[in-house]
Amino acid sequence: MARPASSIARLAPFVLFLVFVLAACGSAGTALVGEDRAADGDQVGAPDEGTAGGDGFAEEPDTAEPGGPSGGEPLAAPIEQRIIKTGEITLEVESVAETLGRVRALTAELNGYVGGSQAGTLEESATLTLRIPAAAFDTMLARLHELDVEVIAEATREQDVTGQVVDLEARVDNLRASEASYRELVARAEEVEDILAVQSRLDQVRGEIEQLQAQLDALEGQAALSTLTITLIPRDEPIETQAATWDPGGQLDRALASLVGIGQGLFDGLIWFAIVWLPILGVLAVIVLVLLRGVLEVRRRMPPPGARPAATSRDESAA
Known about the structure:
Layout: H1 2-45, H2 49-52, E1 83-93, H3 96-109, E2 113-119, E3 126-133, H4 137-146, E4 149-160, H5 162-188, H6 192-224, E5 225-234, H7 248-301, H8 307-318
Helix pairs in contact: 1-5, 5-6
């Protein structure tokens, strides 16, 4: 029981040091925000003593220094907006193969690349998935419209992920600060138990950093390179129609062909009837004849309906 107590006692200073470091970071950030807000409030709410009269004298205005309106710390840089652009467009073209080559060349010209393609033969439809810099997305669409194509369908979408990127960056920064604190604790620890405990927590923090960094990189990549899916379909050729002309010879040939076809059909039907249906009908006819003969034989043997009662009446009269 004494060993766990000693381990806890040895670990306690490091835990207290970690809590102190995190609290100091949080209080420092809060103090900086409070000072900035207080400074802004003083600049907005303080009266101009030079014009108000105050104590009867005016102070010389402060000379503004580069980097800010009041000569203090420079203003924070504006947050860069991250927008994910995606789109699909279907084009009807004269030659799928030729248009494919022109689209690939145009993509390379705009510093993009083909992320995927699907095509059959050169005259069938083809699909390309392009990754283009976000700044060149609208230019790519405009250049496609300038080709000798007909736009069948077009759709574009924009998704603002600025808030997600800022949140992920803040979480990664906080975790990196915690990682640095844990590294310092590991460096100062002397007991094996203390080192293992802090190292376990350090590994967890590193895993969280890698996970969040992967999400951040994915969003940054999608915002930097827009996705455009292009479908190319061949243009249908017009069907030429010719005026119908009277052709007696052709009509005669078609009539004879129809007659021959009808004769062949009748002959085929007779063959099927003789081979398939005739034996079946013969068996059925034999069964019917046997049944009829049996019924007639039974009826022949049966006495007439009035014969028995007549004989009985003659016996009664003789008695």
